[in-house]
Design a protein that fits this description.
Pfam families: DUF5317. This protein is mainly alpha-helical. It is about 65% helix and about 5% strand. The chain has helices spanning about 1-15, 30-45, 55-65, 70-75, 75-100, 110-115, 120-125, 155-190; strands at about 105, 130, 145, 150-155. The chain starts with a helix and ends with a helix.
């Protein structure tokens, strides 16, 4: 989900918010640490070590829960509820895709073949919920069709990432505004 975080930073910067203040609080570091762990797991997959895939499901849940610290720090309760609705809808859409495909999630890699992230053989090696999609797959528009080269996402996955975007972007906005207020109040004292 690193691209989601970078997108939140980019939009925050475009909107004129300062990015540095968010790094002055410890609450940003649990998600960053888990993002680093995911990056290491991704590198293992690129190197052909597909056994690390089993850790992604648990890491994903822990990762999404790690945002609670930012939510509490900046009192982002409404944003957390909105983000949770995105998670619910995204998870629901993923469940539909899985149910319509006999308990499996079809994956349609394109760019991932070129980057080496996915191989046809890998789908035979890894025995998890993901299978190589084909013309017999149902509800293809809900399956993993958006290939980033290091991950293939479904519409549901993108909606789940909206939660991360909302929390990071709002945290950047609030941290920037707080620093600006602190700077203004310190100027008044002088």
């Amino acid at each position: 989900m690193i691209e989601t975080i970078f997108l939140a930073f980019l939009i925050g910067k475009i909107k004129g918010y300062k990015i540095k203040p968010i790094f002055k609080t410890w609450q940003i570091y649990p998600p960053i640490l888990l993002e680093i762990i995911c990056f290491i797991l991704q590198i293992n997959i690129f190197r052909g070590n597909y056994h690390t895939i089993i850790y992604f499901k648990n890491i994903k849940t822990i990762y999404l829960m790690s945002y609670i610290f930012l939510i509490l720090k900046y009192k982002e309760y409404v944003q957390a509820i909105i983000g949770s609705v995105f998670i619910f809808i995204g998870s629901f859409l993923n469940k539909i895709a899985i149910l319509k495909n006999n308990g499996k999630m079809p994956v349609f890699p394109t760019l991932s073949y070129k980057t080496g992230y996915a191989t046809k053989e890998a789908f035979n090696i890894v025995k998890d919920i993901h299978i190589l999609g084909d013309e017999n797959s149902s509800v293809i528009f809900l399956t993993d069709i958006f290939d980033l080269g290091y991950s293939v996402l479904s519409i549901g996955d993108i909606l789940i990432r909206a939660y991360v975007f909302i929390i990071i972007y709002t945290s950047i906005k609030l941290a920037s505004k707080k620093q600006e207020q602190d700077e203004n109040s310190s100027l008044k004292v002088i």
